Amino acid sequence: MASASGLSRRRGGGGGGTSSTSTTSTSPPPSRSSSFTGTNNTRTHAGSAFEGGSKIAYDPRDLPPSSTNDGLDGGGRGAGLPRLTIMEEILLLGLKDKQGYLSFWNDNISYALRGCILIELALRRRIALVKDSLGSRRRAGSLSERLVEVVDERMTGETILDETLRMMKATQDPPPGGLHNPNSAVWGSAGSWTSPSSSSASNSGPSTGEKLSISTWVDLLSGETWNVLKIGFQLKQVRERLAKGLVDKGVLRTEKRNFLLFDMATHPVADSTVKASLISRILALLTSTTSSVPPSALLPEGTQCRVIRSVCLVCAAYTASVLDGTMGGAISSSTTHSIPPLGYEEREAAFVRADEILAEFSVWPWGATNEIGSTPGSRKRSSSSRIATGSSADQGRESVLGLVAEARNEMGVIASAGSGIQGISDDGQDLCLELVAGVLEVLSRLDSLL
Questions:
Q1: What integer pLDDT is reported at residue 369 of this predicted model?
Q2: Distance from first CA to last CA of the chain, Å, rounded?
Q3: What is the rounded radius of gyration, in angstroms, for the C-alpha atoms of the chain?
Q4: Which of 4, 45, 236, 263 is most buried, by CB atoms within 10 Å?
Q5: Which CATH superfamily is domain 86-155+237-254+272-449 in?
Q6: For position 106, what pLDDT does the model report?
Q7: How far apart are CA 327 and CA 309, in angstroms?
């Protein structure tokens, strides 16, 4: 008779086995559209195979109550997270639609994806920069050398983000025992990191953790280090894991292709409208001729940091060498998402616009570009592109300044959302968004690093 009442998850130490005799036909079987969340009916759905639902099954009780809908401060204050992360968007732009694999000649995307991981964690208010005691007197050009710290240790629900967060937390606050190993992180039963000071076994003295800079973290996550003791920080199979995540979200599908003597799993595009909407957002931002940001260049209303996310998408696509693929337009099953390709002069103007956006947002505060604060080589690339296309020096400048103003307004909304927001210093500086600027500075030097 127990099978007639459906299946239920057994909680460890929660329910006893005596309730099996009272399971009769008087209690109706659970619905397919509801998840077992105990007596708390305010929890979110634990995964669904239906359209519009998450295809990854999970137990919402394993996550903190506010982790399922991160808002401005990670607490769900009226803003939701987008369907795709920035890393997934960059990977989707680089994938060939029908073949389902990346270009073998693209050496930049792996390094750029690691930077996007830090950007995504910063936008979710998980990591931030350590407050600089120099304040406004800090040396120019040292933004990428600022130290990073974990300000919120809750899980995000994304595997790669959580793995990176564990390594950063284990480096900053090593677990008891004296071993400084990213693979020996201790995760508490309540979904948070166990503090060495609160552990009964913490008799080894003070913590010997360290905080690393932005550029160091991007190098370590990419495996770009000669220190054999830091090899364990490298994230393995990032592109394949991101592709599998897109398969779970219904954007890609998995196929096997034969390459000479071996078979390789490929991931062609299954939902072409998703990639077409990405290309539409990028082109709308790069071809705008007014100071106001077009709504088609932004994520839907109510999305967390919709302006800043669009800026990071364009800058990351530009540095990852996947922006060129968006210039050819997109063909979708829906005629409303089909995008015509750009002409030669329009392509050059779009690349110049992307370089200007990167130059404005890779410094802090945003828009404070000058001869010292500009990204290395950005002014030379911009001027040479303008000479090649015959365009004036002020073409599109008004649109870039309008984008900077919108991003600053969005930053002001975050700062005024209330107290308790992670990553906001005592003087009102947003250390999370300053970290985003530091990552963009690292990515702007990508051509000279590789």
A1: 72
A2: 65
A3: 24
A4: 45
A5: yeast vps74-n-term truncation variant domain like (1.10.3630.10)
A6: 86
A7: 20
* Residue 336 confidence (pLDDT): 55
Domain-by-domain residue ranges, the chain? Answer: 86-155+237-254+272-449
How many C-beta atoms surround the C-beta of residue 412 within 10 A?
12
Inter-residue contact 360 to 386 (CB < 8 Å) = no
Whole-Å CA distances, 82 to 251, 257, 313, 414, 428: 14, 31, 13, 17, 26
| Contact (CB, 8 A) for 176 and 209 | no
- Round to whole Å and give the CA distance between 338 and 399: 25
Name beta bridge partners: 147. 213
Residue 286, C-beta contacts closer than 8 angstroms, at least 6 positions apart: 314, 349, 350, 353, 354
Q: What is the DSSP letter of 298?
A: S
Give 315: exposed, middle or buried? Use CB within 10 Å, 0-12, 13-18, 19+: buried
Q: Which amino acid, one-letter code, is at 212?
A: L
Pick from 177, 194, 140: nearest CA to 376 = 140
Q: How far is 20 from 202, CA to CA, in rounded Å?
A: 43
Give the integer Cα–Cα distance in Å for 442 and 362.
8
Report whether 374 contacts 383 (CB < 8 A): no
* Contact present, 372 and 140 (Cβ < 8 Å): yes
**Residue showing tokens 């979904």:** 191
Q: Can you tell me which residue has the tokens 């983000």? A: 161
Residue-level pLDDT at 21: 39
pLDDT at 306: 95
Q: What is the pLDDT of residue 256?
A: 87
Query: How many residues does this entry show for the chain?
Result: 450
Nearest to 56 by CA among 68, 73, 71, 42: 68
pLDDT means per 10 residues in the chain (450 residues)?
Answer: 45 42 43 41 46 54 47 50 96 92 88 97 96 59 89 94 96 71 42 39 55 95 85 92 95 87 87 93 93 93 95 97 85 64 91 96 86 46 48 70 95 82 85 96 79
> In terms of Cα–Cα distance, which of 259, 254, 329 is closest to 287?
329
Residue 196 preceded by cis peptide, ω within 30: no
Predicted confidence at residue 262, as pLDDT, reads 81
